[in-house]
Amino acid sequence: IMNHNNFAVFIEAKSNNNSISSDSYGEIVLLNLSTGEKKILTNDNYFDYETVISPKGDKIIFKSNRLYEDSSPQIMGANPALGGIFIYDLPSNKIKSISQLLRKDYVTNINKFIWRTNGESFFYLRNGIEINEFNISTNKSTKLMNCNDDERIWKFLYINRNNLLVINQGHKESSESRIVIYNLDSQKSMGLDSTSNFVLFSSFGDHEFVFNKNRKIYCYNVLTQGIEYLFDVYLSGDIYVTECFRIDKTEFLIMGKTKNITKLLVYDSANGKITELTNGDKEIEYLDFYRSKKQ
Questions:
Q1: How many CB atoms lie within 10 A of CB 278?
Q2: Alpha carbons 151 and 173: distance in angstroms, whole number
Q3: 28-32: which pairs have CB atoms within 8 A and are 24 or more residues apart?
Q4: Strands 216-221 and 208-213
Q5: For strand 261-268 and strand 26-32, is the pairing parallel, antiparallel, or unpaired?
Q6: What does the alpha-carbon distance between residue 109 and residue 178 come to, in Å, rounded to a whole number?
Q7: What averages of pLDDT result for each successive group of 10 residues across the chain (295 residues)?
Q8: Between vectors from CA 66 to CA 9 and to CA 102, what angle results, nearest 5°?
Q9: Is the whole model's pTM more than 0.70, yes or no?
Q10: Of 191, 134, 149, 184, which Cα lies nearest the Cα of 163?
Q11: d(CA 153, CA 147)
């Protein structure tokens, strides 16, 4: 089913008008963008967050304050106040812990998961400055790169074409940030623009990514080094785009805020049409997007 539909994956508050925090409960939700069918994957009393779906659409990596696997002993090294890192297997509906990542770090030190295209490993950020890759088959992590101690990596993406990491980083004492493209093969990097304030959103296809620069949203092509203006960060005046995924040439999956309400939307830049997927009665966070393989 996953191969023929576009899906949104996100965390939704368990109750109406309830924020998502470690003091409340956040559920993993799978939303079929074609049919509107909504499935709550983790309907329990745990706080789940940082959901990222695999390129094959069969696994979701996430963080949670749950301490137990299904019919398994307590996770080694897990802190009861922090929880652990898990993989939700969609075909079997089973949750597996990745306790290997917790042997040297608290779970709060590890975040920003990004799958490699083959789905056999994923990248993660450690201590805000170091990007590593974890191989699921071997249970081994490899350090790939790190920024200076006076800087922080806010977000990063993987671009399959040319084996690139696109990194949103900046000085830890400043709110301004820049985008750096790091080649994993040559271990060399290049910056897009050191003078602007960037917010990195998402990748598109195997050689493009979407970002916010000075409240305008663009798409960058790593092959041509061309930048395409898409639309302003404010839609219809009062909807502020906080996350953006490009579905196709003109359609975008957007998480937007308006009047302290977060909504999931599909925006058509060709005609300005906005389709609401959620009504805002429950807080949502940690949006990710699975693109149909038929596109």
A1: 20
A2: 8
A3: 28/60, 28/62, 28/88, 29/284, 30/90, 31/7, 31/264, 31/277, 32/5, 32/6, 32/7
A4: antiparallel
A5: unpaired
A6: 22
A7: 78 71 75 92 86 94 72 40 80 84 70 93 94 91 92 94 93 85 94 80 95 95 95 91 96 92 94 91 92 72
A8: 95
A9: yes
A10: 184
A11: 7
CB 152 within 8 A of CB 129: yes
* Dist. CA 49–CA 27, nearest whole Å: 8
C-beta of residue 28 within 8 angstroms of C-beta of residue 51: yes
Q: How many other C-beta atoms can be found within 10 angstroms of the C-beta atom of residue 67?
A: 15
DSSP state of 4: G
Q: Is 284 exposed, middle or buried (0-12, 13-18, 19+ CB in 10 A)?
A: buried
Q: Which two tokens stand for residue 174?
A: 């400043």
Contact between 161 and 222 under an 8 Å Cβ cutoff? The reply is: yes
List CB contacts of 81: < 8 A, sequence separation 6 or more: 65
Tokens 């088959």 belong to 137
Residue type at 185 in one-letter notation: D
Nearby residues of 257 by Cβ (< 8 Å), 6 or more positions away: 239, 240, 242, 263
User: Are 82 and 65 spatial neighbours (Cβ–Cβ below 8 Å)?
Assistant: yes
Residues β-bridged to residue 79? 83
Q: Which two tokens stand for residue 41?
A: 């994957």
